[in-house]
Design a protein that fits this description.
With about 650 residues, the protein is mainly beta. Helix content is about 10%, strand content about 45%. It contains eight helices and 45 strands. A ten-stranded mixed beta sheet has the order 6-7-8-9-17-18-13-12-11-10, covered by helices on one side. Strand 8 and strand 9 form a beta hairpin. Bound molecules: sulfanyl-(tricuprio-$l^{4}-sulfanyl)copper and dinuclear copper ion (CUA). The site of dinuclear copper ion has 9 residues, from loops.
Length: about 650
Amino acid sequence: MKSILFHILVAIAAITLGFMACKPKNLGTAVTGDAANKAYVAPGQYDEFYNFVSGGFSGQMSAYGLPSGRLLRVIPVFSVDPEKGWGYSEETRPMLNTSHGFVPWDDLHHTELSQTNGEVDGRWVFGNANNTPRVARIDLKTFRTAEIIELPNSAGNHSSPFITENTEYVVAGTRFSVPADNTNGDIAINTYKENFKGHLSFIAVDKETGGMNLSFQIQCPGVNFDLSHSGKGPSHGWFFFSCYNTEQANTLLEVNASQKDKDFIMAVNWKKAEEYIKAGKGKKTPTNYAHNVWDEKTHSGKSEMVKEVLILDSREFPDLCYMIPCPKSPHGCDVDPTGEYIVGSGKLAALIPVFSFTKLQSAIANKEFDGVYDGINVIKYESALYGEVAKPGLGPLHTEFDANGNAYTSFFVSSEVVKWNIKDLKVLDRVPTYYSVGHLCVPGGDSRKPFGKYLIAYNKITKDRYLPTGPELSQSAQLYDISGDKMQLILDFPTIGEPHYAQACPAGLVTPNQVKIFKIEENNHPYAAKGEGEAKVVREGNKVHVYMTSIRSHFAPDNIEGVKMGDEVYFHVTNLEQDWDVPHGFAVKGASNAELLIMPGETTTLKWAPDKVGIFPMYCTDFCSALHQEMQGYIRVSPAGSNVPLKFSVGEPSAEATQ
Ligand code: K7E
Ligand code: CUA
């Protein structure tokens, strides 16, 4: 059977090559050897790993199975999603609240799995919003966004959401420096150097619940924080942030922020920062940011505005932050599994510097400084440097690690992944990517315990890899087997949005904790109807609350009259099912928001303002039984001031039958 599949794939490859005659040759189109087998997961079989992939400008995250590359679920995070009613139902709308009001979109770049003792634990996955700065926590019991916290004093939240080795903190560095929230922002842009500041946010995470709380921020010079990673093992207690635009330019950054030969990696002693905060050294500073939390018992999100944040000024605490020079606009900032080596990737560099945590510590102790940058000591490059990987490729971006002391770096310009040994800094292997690779992911690859086995490249350009789809082509990932000495390409799979960072973990860390249904007796939604006997319609002024139930295959009530123009109708639909995999949907004609998708035991609300007099059908949108198509009803809308009484029913005989 294996060889049949292989022959089919070879045949497909041959046909494809013949069909796309203009396609360049030798681009790794044909799979080699046993590649097809390695990525093949037979029907009915499960994948070995979950892969949580950022959705870029789709604002969502998606879960794929590895090695098959099968898309399992798009998890709505920062963007509305009509498929799940996310951001459309009354319960989910507060989750997208910000200090700018309801924001239905964002740009999610990086995902990060929670860790315990430096190992991924499969409890939560975090995501960052790059536009309106926010961090989200997705609960992997439900694959739902459980919490979103906005970041004050920030603009663009790129250097995020990276975590410490026990998930003590999720960290977020601002990409754009801006004037602090408590200062006058109505100033000339060209006063950047004087007035713009960069803030690093430390969000504490509750060990049990995962609840997030913005513990403190460190105010830093006005640079662009790009990426980060925490220390681990011996370097636990430190965080490393790559910075660019240390020229502090406010225009034409492509030229003006590439002036200096070296920018910085900023090393932050967050344990020290914690001590200062405990000692009351943080300054309470006025601000305004949203903190949105989902409650699984009321099936609702709540948004709260927070008015204050604790700030430590990096200039006042010289033992908090240190700058390490790093060549040519560093992007990726990655720490190896031992915690000793910090890899900086300069987007315009032709080498990869590897810094040593031990050397960094002795450089600090011996004050081996090379001047001061805006109040922060600059470590001598050579004093922190372990060594450089010479001639690795062009345009290094990101590095991941395996469990055997190897690093894998993506090269955007030369479109390749390069494997190198951390100890001797020798290049061991290189494979092409198709094309212009950005981020990489190895399961557990930024933790103390990488699982190795696979490496996924997330590419920026796909050109000729898939059937064309007009001017916009598919986004793409490529899967490599890294279990041997040589990396082997085994699969291309399309992805959603633009993938940036991703995380992966063994499925067994996640599956045992899955929620299958919500218990109806634990449903504390204020408008729940926990049985058909509780179904009703209640008028409060111009608000009409429909306490509706759904069960295979009808709604109760399914006939409603007495709604008038000018009313706001709230359909609170409780799904009475207590079986796994039996959601119901709900939609009403002319609704300007979306549908609802209601999980077993859950209550979800659709707000509807009828726009004309007449009869409006409503129906279940999710195919739930053989009689799903019968799962429907009507609502009658009368003119404003009409005396049609409020009336609701299910199963009432028709007028003809009662005569
Ligand atoms: Cu947010 Cu390099 Cu896109 Cu990753 S960054 S690629
Ligand atoms: Cu309920 Cu379809």
